[in-house]
Structure formats: C-alpha cells, structure tokens
Design brief:
By secondary structure, this protein is α+β, with helices and mostly antiparallel strands. It has 11 helices and 13 strands.
Length: 400
C-alpha cells in the first residue's frame, strides 16, 4: 500500500536538489499542485452539473527561478530528465513526438492569449501523482505550471482563473474535451474536505469528510488515456441529448423532463443523459449525507453511481467492475466504493472506515490478481489543500 505522506516531503527536496544540480543555482521557489480523486459525480462537469472531488496529497512539484530573457526551460525529472525549451517570442507548436511538453506549452499559450506579461523561467517538474490512473496528473501539471509562471511574474490569479487556464490548455492545445473539475479542485482543495463544485457557475462548497474514514484509491492497472479513449464521444453524445431537450447543458434537465420529453431521442444518447441527470441528484444527496453526519446513505449512493457508469454511460471495464464488487462485499454496507475518473480503466475510490482498511487491502491482494491477471496498486490518501507556493528553505516549512 502506498502512503503519500511518507514520500511527499522528500520529493519536494529531491526536486529542488535536482534543480540546483541541473541549473547550477538553487530554485527561487517551489510550487505544489495536488492531484484529485472524485468521490461522486462523474461526467457531470462538462454538462454544467455538480461534482464532489477532493484534492489529495499526491502532488506535482515545480521548482522555479526567473530568467532575464524570454526563454522557458523545463526539465521533466520523471521522464529521464527530458528537456523542453519554449521561446516566448514564437508561436506554440504541438510536440508530435512527446506528450508531456504539450500540457506546458498549452498553458503558456493560454497565458499569452490572456495578455499576461510572461518572462523566461528555468523549471524542473517532478511528482508522485500516478499517471494514466484517472487521478488528474495532467491537471496538476497544468495548474502547477500556471502558478509557477504567474508567481514568477508577480501576478495574482484567482483559483478559478488558474483552473480555466489549465482547462483551456487541455481543451484547445492538447485537444481533450475535459470539464473544469480537475483543474478547479487542484486550485481550490481544502484540507480534510471534499469540495462540491457547481460547474455552471463555479461556486464551491467544502464538506468535511468523516474523520474516522480513510480514502482508499485502488489502481486497477488497466491503463487509460482520455485523448485516445471515447471521452470526447461521450461529451458529443451529451451535447446531442441537450440539444434534443432544448437546453444548452444537461444540468438544466430535471428527472421528470428526462422521461416526459424523451420523444425520438436515440437509446444511446438517452442513456448518457439519464446518467448525467441522475448523477447530479446523487451528488447533492451525498453532500447532504456528509454534512448532516448521517452516513447511512453513502454506500447506496456510491453503488448507484457505479452502476450508472456501467450500464448507462458504459465507461467501466470488467476488471474495474470486479474490484468494486469485491470491495463492496468486504465493506458490507459500511462506507462506499465506485469507479472514479473518466473511465475505461484507471482507479476505484472507496470511503472506508478505519477499522476496515486492513480487511479491504487483504481482500484485494488475495483475489484481484487471481481473477484478472493484473496487479493492483493501493493508495491511501487524505484530502489536501489546493495549489500553493512554497519556500525552498526547508527549515522554514512555510509558504511564500
């Protein structure tokens, strides 16, 4: 089982040491941007609906120093020290050979489109957000880069502005039609809380997670890639359904309207719409459940969410379904479990009473590989604060 707390402090120092070794001088500051796990509310964000993610204590770190020219140098420590050089005086071009630089180039392009005065910087990027697992390593990178570049230029952007830069970079440069949830929770996370986001007006409501529960994330080891998956197709199907109902976003469709006005909407688009409309209702019920301190409905809500993703949105895979069923059986009505993320692999998330964590871990380790031939990775996590600028003086342990 992977525990982020045991690695994050050393990783921040390793990133800064790598910076000094590569550039020959210490970094001036360090940015820390969290990944996220979505407790409930899947594929509702780009439909203007409700989501309920938590930033988690797995991070992307960006060590940075200002330059006196218009060049941004980026070293990817986790990608064998690969380097990307961005000339701010020239247009951004998509890197066909490597994917990771495109998230950074997209952020730079969006900052320039907004006419922010950028300057050259030397950067080193490293992190422990699992990649390809649906925990938003890309959003953490986008947010971390945006925060580093704007901080270097003395610019103060709101959490929403930073999130929109990251989202637009992914939509317009990387060409992945993601919603804003991943970037906004990375900028707006609250320690110990999940955050309900209204993706129509971007209002947020933080809700404390149960103190005697742990967040368990299980990577199925079924690799996924949003750009190459059917994510964009699902979004197009939702847009078709919204047009059928005469609304801009499926958020505006009630459960009653969904059925009463179905008309000749084809079966596939209706299933997609039904998932979104009912999932929005589940998010609101989950917030009420946790805020009231009455956790009895938690298990059923997460179960219903997963079943909807399996049968209506059709984004789960057999290994994920098996994991969810196995954990649910172990929990026996205490806590909850569901697939999390864009789908087609990745992770499941479980809210697990502390006294059942060992049982869940043992059940997965004893059965999952034998059933699927895949080796799981189990993470324990806690809800984290959003992106922050840190001092590189580790004796200070503070922000700047």
């Amino acid at each position: 089982m992977v525990d982020a707390q045991s690695t994050q402090d050393s990783l921040s120092q390793v990133t800064c040491k790598y910076f000094e070794s590569y550039y020959g001088a210490p970094a001036e500051f360090l940015v820390r941007a969290p990944g996220r796990v979505n407790i409930i509310g899947e594929h509702t964000d780009y439909n203007g609906g409700f989501v309920f993610p938590a930033a988690i204590n797995y991070y992307t770190y960006v060590a940075a120093s200002k330059r006196q020219d218009a060049v941004i140098n980026v070293v990817a420590r986790d990608w064998s020290g690969q380097v990307d050089r961005i000339d701010l005086s020239k247009p951004m071009h998509f890197d066909e050979a490597r994917m990771w630089p495109n998230y950074i180039r997209g952020v730079v392009e969006q900052l320039q489109k907004r006419n922010y005065p950028l300057r050259g910087c030397d950067l080193v990027v490293s992190g422990n957000v699992p990649q390809g697992a649906g925990l938003s390593s890309s959003a953490a990178l986008e947010v971390g880069i945006a925060k580093a570049l704007t901080h270097a230029c003395g610019l103060i952007l709101t959490p929403l502005e930073l999130a929109q830069i990251g989202q637009d970079a992914e939509n317009q440069f990387v060409n992945c039609a993601c919603g804003i949830m991943d970037q906004l929770i990375s900028t707006s996370g609250v320690e110990g809380h999940a955050v309900m986001i209204d993706c129509r007006n971007f209002e947020t409501q933080s809700v404390a997670l149960p103190a005697d529960f742990e967040i368990i994330i299980i990577n199925s080891s079924v690799q996924r890639g949003l750009v190459d998956s059917e994510y964009n197709l699902r979004r197009a199907q939702c847009e078709t359904a919204a047009a059928h109902y005469g609304v801009e976003l499926l958020r505006e469709v009630s459960v009653e309207q969904l059925h009463a006005q179905r008309g000749h909407l084809d079966d596939v688009c209706f299933k997609r719409a039904r998932h979104v409309v009912e999932e929005n209702a589940r998010v609101l019920e989950m917030v009420e459940c946790l805020a009231s301190g009455e956790f009895g409905g938690l298990s059923q809500l997460m179960h219903d969410s997963h079943e909807s993703m399996r049968t209506l949105f059709e984004i789960t895979v057999p290994a994920i379904d098996y994991l969810v069923a196995l954990v649910a059986k172990t929990l026996d009505g205490e806590g909850g479990v569901r697939m999390t993320g864009g789908g087609f692999g990745g992770c499941v998330v479980a809210l697990v009473p502390v006294n059942k964590v060992a049982q869940v871990k043992a059940a997965v380790e004893a059965n999952y590989f034998n059933e699927t031939g895949l080796k799981e990775i189990i993470y324990t996590a806690r809800a984290s604060a959003g992106v922050v600028v840190l001092s590189t003086d580790f004796s200070a342990h503070g922000t700047v």
